[in-house]
Known about the structure:
Elements: H1 15-42, H2 48-54, H3 63-73, H4 79-103, H5 111-127, H6 130-163, E1 166-167, H7 169-176, H8 182-206, H9 208-219, H10 223-226, H11 234-251, H12 257-260, E2 287-288, H13 301-313, H14 318-337, H15 343-365, H16 369-391, H17 393-398, H18 400-425
Amino acid sequence: MASRPDAGPPSSPWRQPRTVLWGAVGVATLGFLIALECAARHYGLPGPITNQAREVIFVPASGPLLYAGLALTMVVLTWRQRLIAACAAVGIDVVFFLVRWAAGSELEFGNGALWVILGCAVIAVTRRTGAERALLLKGVGLGLLLVAGHKTGDTWLLITSKTRPEVLDPYVATTDHALGNPSWLVGQFVEATGSFGSTFLHLVYGQLPLAAAIVGLYQLRHVADERRFPAHHLVRTFLVVGLVGPAIYMIFPVVGPVFAYGAEGGHWATANVWPDTLPSVGGPHPILFDGVTPRNCMPSLHTAWATTLFIHSRKGSRAMRFAGAFWLVATLTATLGFGYHYGADLLAGVVFALTIEAAMRSFARGWDRSAVQLVAYGTAVFTLLLVSYRFLSEPMAGHPWAFGPLLVLVTASVVLGYLRTTRQWDPKADPAPRPEPQSTEPQPELA
């Protein structure tokens, strides 16, 4: 029997390198999680592996996130299998809910979703073979990585608070004078909206991973039919941003205006002036801070994630595009209005997001000169921003009309460079065939 012309032989040359690559990624991820687990244990706290394992039985920290992970896993399943998986997850959660209710424990859901994800992993190993096993394991890995990324972030934040006793908030606050002190302005605006505005923004800010999962599901909606994942999608960039970003926290530790200049900082704050009174300009220097508050401001990863979400929503439906724009605006408002970030953090977050997104797209499509130039330029601008915040904050605050627009223009140059380059990467639709002109000469009659 003749084989299909597009089916490669069992030992086609591309299968083995891809298998080795996925194996290397899996080993590296496991090693990274083990290293973070050991670091957390060093400080007497459970790490990401322990926290993930506890949620099999104990009350989960985030039920919606676990169900978002299950939804990502189910993209590789048929509709019948999805229905069975969803019913099993809900049924298990109902049992847990009743047991906790009878015991007077905290009522939370999500264990069922994790059980089903792990069950899919067992089925992949014991009941699937070849490409079907690999596809189901990729779905399981994607769902677990979304949840593990959140746990990993918590451990990273713990490490930053324990290993970086000094923070650089005075430098960033001084730089923010060149940008018009946006955190103070938006903070006053959020306070003026009262409890409704604060509650609404907290909801948007806290459910950003869930929004990313929804957009990711939209991009992965054809996986079950095509039996393969697309070369590039939102979840990959989302996870890489969360993996690389905390490393920058270690280089440039900042706690944010609500802690360094507000009531949340307690006696560690330099002054309790946020958001009503602007801090003084002059003589920035590192300040000691407590060993609990995360140094998680530079760059703003919420800004980076929201920017990535916005980018990937552009090719969706009108409702998806509107949701992406809404989540970006609401997230930027929340990060500033709650005093979690300075304006300078947001600029760095945008550049960071576009650079990571460009690198991930280049990894999927193949590197060429335009890809290398774009990623190199984004990296250079990001480095320049951090260096200028640290060593040029006073001159920038002293000449806001010059340096404020300059910071915005430099950031805009990365945005424009990304748009210009990626538009060249997108495949151009073939033009519709033009109809042939009809002849005006009389046609001979048929006998």
